[in-house]
Predict the structure.
Amino acid sequence: MRKTIVLIVFAVAFLASKGLSAQNAVALFSYSIFNNPMETPYVETYISFNAWHFKFVPTKDDKYQATIEMTVVANRNDSMVYAKRYNLQSPTSSTAENNMFSFLDVRRFALPNGIYDLQITMKDKNADTDPIEINQELVIYFPAEEPSLSSLQIVASAKPTVQENMISRNGYDFEPYVDNYVPKDIDLLNFYYEMYNVTKEIKENDTFLSVAYIEIEETGRKLTSTMRGKRLVSQPVISDYTTLDISQVPSANCNLVVELRNRNNETFAIKKYPFQRSKPNVQVSTDDLFAYEGTFVTDMSEKELDYYITTLYATASEKEKDFIYNEIKTASLEEKRAFFYKFWLSRSENPKNEWFKYRKLVEYANKNFSIGKVQGYMSDRGRVYLQYGPPKYVLDEKNKVSTRNFQSIGHIHYLPYQMWFYDYIPGDNPKRAFVFFDELRTGNYYLLHSNAKGEVQDMYWERRLSGNQLEENVQAEAGVQFERGY
């Protein structure tokens, strides 16, 4: 069943795909379906009304307010199984006209598994206008012995619940985003969903993977830049609130997709939410995924790719780091190869040579900075070496003792340290330096201080390096070395 968002005008209901502007619609309608395994499934309806379409009349406290008569009916096999009539009152206003705001109606009602015809009728009680009617087919199916997912509810905002209300769930107020049109100025897609009967597939308290991503509806192509995976613990009912970065999703008919996967990366439950995306300046070729074919990446095994992709973290952008840290766990071999090739293509016209140069840096870092099971590229020195390249000069002090006394302290005994000096770092001022120290004398050096942009800075670094022998703001010989550059 395809879930639709309806743009409502007087006497006629249009689908969002017709291109009718939401600002010109009387209201927007959407819904979600959730399960209550201990009782029965239920439907949530969301209607966002544009106030300026309705007639506001005076209230007792000298304000103005609109009233809409709402009728909700659910039929199954031509038999009425649910009916509700109520008056919906808008927020009050200080004027009777030009009320340029929207207000929301959220309703929940229980319906067992089945196929229903939902009819919602809305009538402005203060105006002589025709009623507005919505007709929507509902398919409700939550099997008792199989895992399943609720609707994917798109969320406009979320904040902790202060007082329980109709948009409260699991301690948060989730304001629904009542539109399946996502304009270019929205770069983050927030959504809430629930998982049921996962224990029928995954043993209780064992872990499984929930994977969310955007796909292009016409081609089914997964946009790997949007993909996020979460490792969750199997329970009878699980809820999740997730955000996807859709800044690079182009104008297209899209699906938000959530898959539940077992330890073998096999999908055992899936749910989709269709939406329209407008992002005219973003163009994504359908051939991008296989742009690496015939290049140096093709010969790399998946095990090699997994390892080498993690070594890129030191020089990766924030978006690339998200793939390395989160998405690689769920990405296919083709997606990993595409990511790795594009990573180097974006940095050089000769991506193969650029990668081979970087790999030599990784090999050097592993040979010289590894400690125990921690490979060198993962260490502080390895990260700086990979990010900025080899330093011009390294000062290595294993048992540095000051050549003069300092007041009552006497000679200063420093912990083992290294100072790395660079003449130039791109995007920074000349003459930058890094101080690494072996605080526990294990051979593992941590970054203590640097004057480079965006790096760790500790104004009392020399005091820590001296084992707190120095007083604060007292400069000794290591401080002089740092400023002198050797």
Summary: Residues 1-24 have pLDDT under 50 and may be disordered. The chain is about 15% helix and 35% strand. The first helix runs from residue 302 to 310. The domain at 1-141 is CATH 2.60.40 (Immunoglobulin-like).
